[in-house]
Amino acid sequence: GQNTETRGFQAEVKQLLQLMIHSMYSNKEVFARELISNASDALDTLRFEGVKNDALFEGDPELSIWIDFDTDARTVTIGDNGIGMTREQVIDRIGTIAKSGTRTFLDSLSGDEKKDAHLIGQFGVGFYSAFIVADKVTVDTRRGGESTGTRWISDGGGEYTLEDIDKPGHGTTVTLHLREDEDEFLDGYRLRHLVRTYSDHIAFPIKMREELSEEDEKEGKEAAWAQVNRGAPLWTQAKAEISDDDYAEFYKHSCHDYEDPLTWTHNKVEGSQEYTSLLYIPKRAPFDLFDPNGKQHGVKLYVQRVFIMDDADKLMPRYLRFVKGVIDSNDLPLNVSREILQSNRVLDKIRAGSVKKVLGLIESMARDDDEPEKFKTFWKEFGQVFKEGVVEDAENKDKIAKLLRFKTTTDESADPGVGLDDYIARMQPGQEKIYYITADTLAEAKHSPHLEIFKKKDIEVLLLTDRVDEWVMAHLTEYEGKELSSVAKGALDLGEAETEEEKKEQEKLAEESKGLVERIKTALGERVNEVRVTHRLTDSPACLVADEHGMSAHLERILKEAGQ
Ligand code: ADP
Ligand code: MG
After folding, report:
1. In a mutational test of the pocket of ligand 1, which residue from 38, 78, 146 has the highest number of ligand atoms less than 8 Å from its CB?
2. Among 6-20, 294-308, 349-363, where is mean pLDDT lowest?
3. 548 Cβ partners below 8 Å, 6+ apart?
4. Which of 92, 147, 201, 406 is least surrounded by Cβ atoms within 10 Å, i.e. has the fewest?
């Protein structure tokens, strides 16, 4: 062929391919979903770029995907007339993994097939799943508007070859040369079934050749192409017509997860704003949830069913960055640019409305006594991130606070723990504040001398040990009219005498200790603001207390560590 070259795969790709081939076998059908999903993405891209540059369509505006097989050659082919790729793009996109976090991904592999399969899904390396069933893959592609096409061939070993080709139609055709035992896929019924199961809601027609009767076959008739999938995007359909399986399948396909979602909310909003949202909460946190450079698929924005962008930041606040799904607006212009989206009132309203829906969804999980496991899972996987909302989302702070769950001195279970409403319901008579303690570890929190008086008085204390807790609590000073108070701060009123006798006792003690207090003050000098006699300790002789309005010792330590 013309302009032929052989190149080696990036080391990471080689590793990935080995993994794919050896550990994904029980999920081998996913190749169909992944390749159809790539074709659909390519059609989306063409439709989007085509709004500004009509030439990309090359006079062929009917966008579709087709699937065919050849029993003699033992191949299955998946084609699209989408945007296609240039030679450089092929090298960049299917010879290398340019995405950040590749290393993290490979490092997080456990060797446990199930877990690793899950990671592959999250990582979005779907193309390579072709090698689960194929021992050779050919990709023919030409970018719309370009004259030369490119052929990529690989056997999934260490190398691939490239050559120039003539390709009349723009777009991409992926041909799978099936492995020895994979003849089951050379079957129209089997393939149609795969399409209906995994890709029914792809927004473009997926076509296959109709089955010929034996007679027609004898006469050498050409089979006609017919659409196999339902075709309309799921979110545009009436809720009553969508089954839970449909929702789950759509989620797995469009949000790149191999597991069913935890829960979802589907809403058509009408009135001054018209949009549809279909938002999911996954069952498991992605491995890069806390990685600031992590690849987050997030929420996709569509305008009148045309894909616009995949940018979670604009549609969901950071503390809901685990939410996935689709928002489809009828109000934004089709040729909307990223710049316009930076500050757009329509989008702001959509975002605010969607946040409400997600909070409502989480609330309903928290209330659901039939399936308490759901909220437990949610809190375990995403609680740490969700907490950030107290700081980030002032408008919904109370709603978020209601959903927070804590370990406490009376309930250390983490799943999901104690809510502030539970806490208030069992406050001691006369107790006015919600008390908490922050520490690096649970053990440290539990054994703090600050807790002694609370134990004595049977007052529950929230035990906070997450890194973000200190920061979150600095913003959560009140809940339902009750002040939240750190046990390590200020002149706790708890030590107050309850009877006249006790009061006298305390006064006497203070009088007697004056000399001692003076001596300690002198010894500690500038290192402390004040030395006081306290009645809040029962076992420990002394403890450090932060100023009411100052930083707590814990926060001070965190800032010091951070070099502040
Ligand atoms: P992802 O789809 O998550 O990006 P994949 O491994 O499935 O990961 O695909 C890698 C990349 O290869 C895609 O992002 C896309 O740029 C390119 N690609 C794959 N299939 C096609 C196709 N049919 N048409 C155009 N580009 C494609
Ligand atoms: Mg893909």
Report:
1. 38
2. 294-308
3. 489, 490, 491
4. 147
DSSP string, 373-438: HHHHHHHHHHHHHHTTHHHH-GGGHHHHHHH--BEESS----SS-B-HHHHHHTPPTT--SEEEEE
- Of the CA atoms within 13 Å of residue 539, those in its CB half-sphere come to 9
ipTM of the prediction greater than 0.95, yes or no: yes
Q: What is the largest CA-CA distance in the chain?
A: 114
**CA geometry: angle at 478 spanning 472 and 482, to 5°?**
140
What residues line ligand 1, using a CB cutoff of 6 Å?
34, 38-39, 41-42, 80, 82-85, 93-94, 124-127, 172
Report the predicted TM-score, pTM, of the whole model to 2 decimal places: 0.70
Contact (CB, 8 A) for 17 and 128: yes
Give the tokens for residue 236.
Answer: 């545009």
Report which protein residue has its CA nearest ligand 1's atom 27.
38
pLDDT of residue 93: 87
Closest residue (by CA) to atom 19 of ligand 1? 38
The overall average pLDDT reported for the chain is 86
Ligand 1 pocket: which of 93, 138, 154, 297 to mutate (most atoms within 8 A of CB): 93
pLDDT score of 174 more than 90: yes
- How buried is 306 (Cβ within 10 angstroms: 0-12 exposed, 13-18 middle, 19+ buried)? middle
| Euclidean distance between CA atoms 374 and 260, whole angstroms | 13
Most confidently modeled of 146-155, 223-232, 332-341? 146-155
Q: Which residues contact 556 (CB under 8 A, 6 or more apart)?
A: none
The per-residue pLDDT for 392 is 95
Query: Ligand 2 center to residue 121 CA distance, Å?
Result: 9
